[in-house]
Each structure stands twice: as structure tokens, then as C-alpha cells.
Amino acid sequence: MGSRKLRIVVMLACLAALALLPFVAEKFYVQLFTKMLIMGIFAMSLDLLIGYAGLVSFGHAAYFGVAGYVLALISPQYAAASLWTTLPVAMGVSALLALVIGALVLRTSGIYFIMVTLAFSQMLFYLFHDTKIAGGTDGIYVYVRPAADILGWKPFDLENVAHLYLVVLALFAGVFVLLRTMLGSLFGRVIEGIRINEHRMRSLGYPTFRYKLACFVISGALAGLAGYLAAIQFGFVNPDMLGWHVSGLVMMMVILGGMGTLIGPAVGAMAMMLLELALQSLPEFGGVNFGKHWQLFMGSFIVLVALLLPYGLIGLLRARGQAGGGNGHG
Amino acid sequence: MSFETFLIQLLNGVQYGLLLFLVASGLTLVFGIMGVINLAHGSFYMIGAYLAWSLSERLGNLWAAIAVGVVLAVLLGMLLEWLLIKKLYARDHLYQVLLTYGLILVFEELRSVIWGDDVHGVQVPSMLAASIPLTETLSYPVVRLWISVVCLVLAVGMYLLIQRTRIGMMIRAGASNREMIQSLGINIQLLYRIVFALGIALAAFAGMISAPVSSVFPGMGNQVLIICFVVVVIGGIGSVKGAMVAAILIGLVDTFGKVLHVELGGVKLLPELAGMTVYLLMAVVLVWRPVGIFGRRL
Amino acid sequence: MSEFRKTNAGRRKFLQDGAAVGGAVALAGLLPSVAMAQGAGKIKLGLMLPYSGTYGQIGVGITNAFKLAIEENGGKLGGRDIEYVTLDDESEPSKAADNANRLVNRDKVDVLVGTVHSGVQMGMVKIARESGVLHIIPNAGVAAATTGLCAPNIFRTSFANAQPAYPMGKIAVDKGIKNVVTLAWRYGAGEESVEGFKDNFVKHGGRIVKDLWLPFPNVEFQALLTEIASLKPDGVFVFFAGGGAAKFLRDWQAAGLKGKITLMGAGFLTDGVLEAVGGAAEGIETTLHYGDGIETPKNKAFRLAFAKAYKMQPDVYAVQGYDAGLLLVAGMRAVKGDIRRKKEIIAAMEKVEIDSPRGKWRMSAAHNPIQDIYLRKVVGLENKVIGVAQRALDYPPASLCKMPPH
């Protein structure tokens, strides 16, 4: 269809533009966009659960934070770990955690599901916060970024801001394509069917629990990817990475951007971070420092979006009938 | 732990639980009857505390501050319901979560603009400033006992309201079947507005009476919010009785978790992992009974 | 409102226009700030401190005193004018690296000054080590900043967490206190302070009954006070500061423990909180590198100037901020304001003797103050200095810092 080809062209153009960023912008902005892309991956992983599977997880930060902690814990203190071993291990731990927690929480539904996912992430939060497993409240540092060496050949250097950015961009694009393909396949159709009417899918013979669990695990693994990258970027992990504020924040990004569209949450993530930066730079006016109180505007913005945009920000760009990947949530 | 210490810790736990009940009861009513998830509920606890502090300085004593504060809270609740909340009834839970999350940010910043960001203490009123000696070393502050008594009185009041009055009947009916009472011709709009304002006022009132013992600080709303959700979920959504049972349970688990020593196979569990206990409790309850202790399938 | 606006299409258009405006505003926030010429022009000082929350007042005090020190020395650094960039770090460790990065890489400050909270400090230290920017710590006592993570460009004008607590260990034993329960916030500052006390206390024959912890910045002391009462130790050593300290002192009194069990702590327990707690702190002895009633001309002049300029009494945090200003002035004077000659600035800062209100002191090889620790007692609204607990204390020892030659 014409509009589909158009969408692909637009997305490729955006990708190309983003790839050019390190050559035109200053270090600070390349770092900022790296952070936005990482949050975009995180948001997309949650959209798989909220937007497509209809599973509202309020504890997604657990998988994000755990991967970061795994990196910090298995990296030698002042030398570089190997990217190729630490990344799969970190994602693997997140996936395993999602498997275990998912097997327990998927027995509940509705508001109880929301709360019990929160409960498990809070338990993990307190595990890291109150014990000395990993530095307690003060967190631990990753002083040297993982090295990408394979048998002496170094394809890229993650200590280089531009390299890290391009690697993250490539991963972002990869995750997007992966999820799109997955959701366009039979698996994706079953998942959406489960969201719309689980009983019907079960009576059709599909083992719905297994599908939901698979979704939960994939989502957890991808959140782990995001957490790993976040830990690399600022070289610091602390229990707040697993906290409910982070879970809440990424949920906002998903809903704000437009659930069930995949690109929507990514856009939501970037929009929130850009907006935060812009608002923080507001000047003082009439004795009130608007930059300091930027959350007033952010909060009001969120309230307005909730009231007026049932399809999130991405709904602004699409007419209601053409919601290709969208699913009429509202 | 000696028996008298055990009793005192029991008292501490119950006192904390009663205060939690006060805040959580408002949340469970709004949730159960109106079907609205209000993340900003904790913010009203904070607003109550700041009102208590600033009004008691201005008016000279805490009692006047509480009286005025409650009136203000009710008005604020009604205004908020009329302006924003009523637009959420038909919407998906997720949009309620999003909107009320935005409200949390707005209230935090308004609080920062109006009252600043400092930590404050509220003077304990002189008639409550004594301490009752319980053991040769420990005394118990009277003000804490007073708070517990007030919470109990309110709990009884709510019980009477819900079980013995007309409005209470409507509330109970609304909790079990919303559409039904609408079709029975009851002014659902007014009922919702009253319930919401009541819920808000309870949270604010809790903030006010606990201000002398808790300190008034930014972020106090978020801290209490998350525990309140746990109370509501364990107790069962919409059940005030459940909120009471759950709140006391949580108060006890939290208090004893901090002072007991439990080791398992050389690994120290308590008090190191005291923070986890409440959430572990929630997970266990939900696995055993997914709708909470007194909840009904929504 | 026009009829069109009320339709769905109209609403969408309104929002699209709004989004366009919003996008423009967002892009405006991205415009890179103009990089400053480093040799001439204004010197940019980045002040990253808490201006809200439990340590908010401390951040304000440090800022005021820092500016006072510079004002008293001509209002310029090495002859150059100053531009201040302030940032509220909210005592949030999770945002620390982000915030410090913003000051150093986006706003391009020449000197990074801050902060109060030790967890936040770790983030700043990391950025300081990576970027090499000149970094002065006016409070946070996290040991690593001048031991494991020390660096030539990092200086501290305050203390290491264990330093003020250390002398209290021996003083407790001298008072006849044989067994002690410790209670503190479970984070860097709390843990290190307790460690410092325990190190000296146990070394002189004392016994620790139990260590109690509370998550930072939790102030629900009730269950733990009950526990302490049941353990009946001779003394209790605590670490709390700011608003939390005030609440603890009031709760300690309300629980009837005051006077029955000796309460000890590093001076932060009673600094800056005496007005808020009424008589609850009366008679409590603490150890710290500053106190009320230091009768030197320098201290008297400082207290007068500070009170006159800011209408409030200075405390230990202000003194530390003031000394940070003095340190920077000395460093910049040595290079006549040329911030690019960092090696010489560092060398000057290492050698200078700071004429501080607390007394004269110098930097240790680890860039932490070697200073006298006073014993103080709360009398009325003052922390009266009643003696010197230990002179010229270098603790944790500078040997724990392995700095490269520079």
C-alpha cells in the first residue's frame, strides 16, 4: 500500500538523519540522543506488554535495573569486560528473572496484575537497596566501558561518544525491526487475540499462558538490553534503576507516545526527555524560577495529553482510520 | 525480645497501621466505587501535612489549623473532581494512571512554589506533649496514642456511615455494581463527588494529624502512596474493612521486620531485608487469594 | 471558542499547531550554549548543591559563604570576573552523574563545586575524574573521594566522614562508657561515620552491642528507639544530619531516653538544628572540626561578616564553603586567573595554608584537610567548644590515596 511504503521511507529517512548526528552536533547532544534512544528501547519493550499483549506491568524497571547491576557486578573494577560476553549474560539474567516472575504474576489479571508486578520489582529494589550485595543505596560504578574486541580486532570503541551512539542507534533500529516482524507474524496475531479476548483464544486451542509468558520474557530481555546500555552510558548503577518511579516513568512514555504502535512509545520517550531539557532551561519570570519548577509544566502537559489525546502523541500524526499498528485503545 | 518490649512494638505497629488505614481507606473507596485509580492520593497526604504546618504557624494552634485544613481539602477535592476526575470515569485505567501521575508532578511543584522545599517540624500541641513512662528506660509519647485514638474514632465513624446510613447504602451498592445504582435513579454524579471529596479529605486529615510526629518534607506523598496501594490490594479493592485489616497487618509486619533477627542458613534475612517484607506479604496474599482478603472479582 | 475548534478535526488541528510550537520550544532548549574563551572573559563556576529537601538549608549556607570568601578577596578570581551556574542536585544519587555531566559538558564550567550528599558526590567525582575539571568538595565526606578515587584535580575543604567521629571513640571510653549501640542512616556518610567511631572505640577497649540502621532519609525512629531501650546500653552513637537530626533529637527526648542513656554523635547531629529542637539537645556532647565560641580574631570577623551579609548565623557547613572559596582564590591567584594552567593551580592549592575560621589547616597528600577536632557541648542554642578532642587529625590516613605524580 502506498501509505505503508511512505511510512517506511519516512522512517529510513529519520534513521539516516539520526546516523548523521555525531558529525554535526556537540558531545553533549550526542550523549543526550544516546540516552533518548536507550529509553526508546526500554519503552518499546514495555509497549510489547502494555500495547500488544494488554499486560500492564508496573514493575518493568526490575529487568532494566538488574541487567545494569549484572554488568556492574561482573565487570572487573578497573579493566574492560568483553561486550560479547557481558551483554548476553545481562540480557539472559533479565530474561530468566522475567521467566520466574512471569510464571507467578501471570496467574493474576487486571489491577491485581499491575500491583503484583509492582510488588516483585519493589522486592528487588529493596534487595539491592538494603543489602551490601552491590553497594547499597550508593550504587556501584562501571569505570571502564566494555570492550568490543574479537580476537584482537576492534570494530568500535565504546569509550568514544560517537561510537557508542551509533551502536545504540543500530540496536534501537534492530529492536524495532525485530518487534515489528514478531508482531506481524502469527505470534503477534495470537498475542493481540489474547489481549482482545483470552477466553476465545483458549477455546480455539491456543495455550494462552505460554504465549503471555513468552511475551513477558522477550519484553524483559529487551528491557535488560536497555538497562545494560544505560549502565554503560553513565557508568553508574544504583537501586533507583529498579524503583517504581522508573517503572512509572517508562509507562508514561508508552502511554504518552501511543500504546500499541511501537514507534509511539519510542517517540514518547524522546519527547519526554526533550521536553524535560527544554523546560529546565526556562528563565526566571516574575520572581518564580520556571526552569526550577519545570515539572509543573511537564505535569500539566501530561494531564492535557491524557485528557485530549486518546491515542497519545503518535495519534496526532495519524488519522484515526489509518492506525496500521495501532489498536484503538482508549 | 522481652514481653514488655514485644507489647510496645505491637503498639508501634498498630499505631502505624491505623494511620495507614486512614489514608488507604480514601483510596479504596475512590477505587472501588468510582473505578478510578488516583495516583495523586498521596499528594493530598502531603498537602494536608503542609497545610497543618503553615496554618498552625499562621493561626497559632494546631486544632484550628486542622479544622480549616479539612474544609480546604474537601473544597479542593470537589473542585478537582468537577474539573478533571469526572472526565476519567469512562476511560481506560491507563489514562487515569497517566493523568493522575501528571497531577502528582503538578502538586509537587505547586507545593514547592507555595511553601518551598524545606523540611519542617510541627509543634506538638502542649496538651499532648507529655510522655507516659512504660518501662524504666522507655516512655511513650501521648501524641502517638492520640493519633491512634483519632484513627479509631474515624474508623468507627466510617463503619457507621457505610453500614447504617442511606449514603452508606448507596456507597456499598456502588462498590458492588455501579451500573445498577445508576439505573436506579440515584444521582451518581453527586455521589461520586462526595466520595471523592471524602477520600481526599481523609488523606489530607491523616497528613495533618501525623505532621507532629512525622515531619513535613517534600516527597512524603510518594512514600505513603505506594504503601497505600499495597494496603488496598491486600485488603481488597473497595473494602474498607479489608483496608483496616490489611493496614494493621502491614503496620505489624513493617515494625517487627525492622527489629527481629532472622537468619536462614547463614544468610541474614531480617532486619536486613525489612524493606521487602511488605511487598513479600502482598505477593503471598495475591497468590493465595488474587482479589485480596475481602475483595470481590471486579 | 469557535465551533470548528470543538470538533474532533478542529481539536486535532489545535493540538498539531500546539505540537509544532512545542517542538520549536524543545529545539530552542537544544541550542548549544556559547563556549567561553578560556583565557580571558568570565570564569564559570558550577555550584551543584542541594537546594531542596533535607539538606536544602545546608546548600544555601555553603553557597552564601563561598561567595562571601570571594567577595572579601576582591570579588574576582585572579583578576577575572565570575559567572555562577547553580544546580539543585536534590540529594539524588541517581541523577548525580547526569547533573554533573550537564554542568561540565553542556554548560562548560571551569570549576565544579559541590556537594553535600555522599552518594551524589560519587557521581560528581566520577565526572571530575573523567573530565579532569577542577573539583572542590565543600561538604560530602565520602571516604573514596580522597582515598580509592582520589585525583590531582579533586580537593576537599570539609572532612572525611570518619574523621570527626573518630576522636569520639576514645572520649566515650574515657567517660566510662563500656557498651554502645550504633544507629545511623544506611548510606556512605552514616556507615563511614559509625566505622570511624567504632575503630577508635574498640581500639580503646569498648564493646559494640548492636548496629542499627535506617534507610536514608527515613525518619520513623519509633521501632528502633524501642529496641534501644530494651537493650539498655551505656551509650548510643548516631549519625543523622539536617532535618532528620532535628526529628531524632525530639523523638529521643519524647521516648524518655534523654538523660538515661548517653547520646553521642559527630557534630552534625546538633549543628543547625538547635532552634528547631528546643531543649531536646541540651547537654549533648559531639565532636566536630568547628563549634561555637572559638575565640580567634579570624572566626569572630567571619561570623560578623556572614551574619551581616546574610542575616543568619554561620555553621560548620558555611565555614567549609568559605574555605572552598579561599582555596580557589589562592589557586587562581597563583596563575593570575589563567584557568588553563591547571598544574600550577593544583600545586598552589596543595601548598596553601588556609586561614580558616576553624583554625589554620593544610591539605593532606590526599587533598583532605588535616585539622583539629573539637569537643563541643550543647548549651542553650550553641554548640559550645569545651576542648580539643584531637589535634591535626589525618584520618582516614592519606596513605590510602594513591595519586599519580602531577
Please outline the helices and strands.
The complex is a heterotrimer of chains A (330), B (298) and C (406).
Chain A: H1 2-24, H2 27-52, H3 61-74, H4 83-105, H5 110-130, E1 140-141, H6 161-184, H7 186-196, H8 198-203, H9 208-234, E2 236-237, H10 244-257, H11 263-280, E3 284-285, E4 288-289, H12 294-308, H13 312-317
Antiparallel strand pairs in A: 1-2, 3-4
Helix pairs in contact in A: 1-6, 2-6, 2-9, 2-10, 2-11, 3-4, 3-5, 3-9, 4-9, 6-7, 7-9, 10-11, 11-12
Chain B: H1 3-34, H2 41-59, H3 62-83, H4 93-115, E1 131-133, E2 139-141, H5 142-164, H6 166-176, H7 178-183, H8 188-214, H9 220-235, H10 240-259, E3 262-264, E4 267-270, H11 274-288
Helix pairs in contact in B: 1-5, 1-6, 1-8, 1-9, 1-10, 2-3, 2-4, 2-8, 2-9, 3-8, 5-6, 5-8, 9-10, 9-11, 10-11
Chain C: H1 3-6, H2 8-30, E1 43-49, H3 56-72, E2 82-88, H4 93-106, E3 111-113, H5 118-131, E4 134-137, E5 154-156, H6 162-174, E6 179-185, H7 188-203, E7 207-214, H8 222-231, E8 235-239, H9 242-254, E9 262-266, H10 274-277, E10 285-288, H11 297-310, H12 316-334, H13 342-351, E11 353-356, E12 359-363, E13 369-379, E14 382-393
Parallel strand pairs in C: 1-2, 1-3, 3-4, 4-5, 6-7, 6-8, 8-9, 9-10
Antiparallel strand pairs in C: 10-13, 11-12, 12-13, 13-14
Helix pairs in contact in C: 3-12, 4-5, 6-7, 12-13
Radius of gyration of chain B: 20 Å
The most extensive contact between chains is: A-B, 47 and 44 residues
Structural class of chain B: mainly alpha
Q: Looking at the chains present, what oligomeric state does this protein adopt? A: heterotrimer
The string of secondary-structure elements of chain B, in order, is HHHHEEHHHHHHEEH
Low-confidence stretches of chain C: 17-22, 24-39
Total helical segments of chain B: 11
The total number of structural domains of chain C is 3
CATH 4th-level superfamily of the largest domain in chain C? Response regulator
**Mean pLDDT over all positions of chain C:** 87
What is the residue-mean pLDDT of chain B, rounded to a whole number?
86
Q: What is the CA-based Rg of chain C, rounded? A: 24 Å
CATH domain class of the largest domain in chain C? Alpha Beta
The description of the largest β-sheet of chain C is: 9 strands, mixed
Question: Number of helical runs of chain C?
Answer: 13
Secondary-structure element pattern of chain C, one letter each: HHEHEHEHEEHEHEHEHEHEHHHEEEE
